[in-house]
From TrEMBL:
Reaction it catalyzes: 5-amino-1-(5-phospho-D-ribosyl)imidazole-4-carboxylate + L-aspartate + ATP = (2S)-2-[5-amino-1-(5-phospho-beta-D-ribosyl)imidazole-4-carboxamido]succinate + ADP + phosphate + 2 H(+)
Keywords tagged on the record: ATP-binding, Ligase, Nucleotide-binding, Purine biosynthesis
This protein's name: Phosphoribosylaminoimidazole-succinocarboxamide synthase
GO molecular function, one term: ATP binding
Length: 237
């Protein structure tokens, strides 16, 4: 497969066209950002860790019957994915209260949310990814009712799979965001799943093992990501 020109460069990944119009290459960079890009830093090994972490998780989800765009690892920092027509809506599930939910509602961090909450956000960096609902998504043409229903169902199926997976490694899946796209008329999981886009806590100590270590200046960001991977059996060598 021939890697061609860059299609898009996000906060931590770059997307490249290939000689196959239905395939893209994702390049996971060492860049890390927080607070809508206001704080940025390059962390050694991060691109490699997130690339391999994402490949592992996408494989587990595929095994559980959840369609994803992931196809194969290409190198330590690159993978091949199906090209999707992305839906500009982020789906967020929260199993415990943290982050934006705590700030918005003033609830105690760490309380168990039963049932888990489900939220939608418009993927728009310039507007700060504002919270939306199904009605807004339909009215403004961001997603159809059928797409929204399927996205919600898949997001909760992901929750069932990954809550158990992380718990087996002594970790709590606090919350996470997912992005979806369309290919051949099917809603498919896109983007990535890594500690950049979810919150993970040690189940016993509740030590943070995700990007909050960067946001909150706790240090040991990549070491925490690698520890998460080690507990899941991911080989970063």
């Amino acid at each position: 497969m021939e890697k061609r020109d860059a299609l898009y460069a996000g906060k931590a990944k770059s997307v490249y066209r290939t000689d196959d119009p239905g395939r893209l290459i994702l390049h996971f960079r060492d860049d890390t950002s927080a607070f809508d890009g206001k704080r940025k830093e390059a962390l050694a090994r991060k691109g490699m860790v997130n690339n391999k972490f994402n490949a592992f998780i996408m494989g587990k989800l595929e095994e559980a019957g959840i369609p994803t765009h992931f196809e194969k690892l290409l190198s330590d920092t690159e993978c091949v994915v199906k090209k999707l027509d992305m839906i500009p809506v982020e789906c967020v599930v929260r199993n415990l209260a943290a982050g934006g939910l705590v700030r918005r509602l003033g609830v105690e961090e760490g309380i168990v949310l039963d049932p888990p909450t489900y939220e939608l956000f418009l993927k728009n960096d310039d507007k700060g990814d504002p919270m939306i609902n199904e009605s807004l998504a339909e009215t403004f043409g961001w997603a159809t009712p059928a797409q929204l229903e399927r996205m919600k169902a898949l997001t909760f199926r992901v929750n069932d799979v990954l809550k158990n997976l992380f718990l087996e490694g002594g970790m709590l899946l606090v919350d996470y965001k997912l992005e979806f796209g369309m290919v051949d008329g099917e809603v498919v999981l896109g983007d990535e799943f890594s500690p950049d886009g979810c919150r993970l806590w040690d189940a016993r100590t509740r030590e943070k093992m995700d990007k909050d270590r960067f946001r909150q200046g706790l240090g040991g960001v990549i070491e925490a990501y690698e520890e998460v991977g080690r507990r899941l059996g991911i080989d970063f060598a």
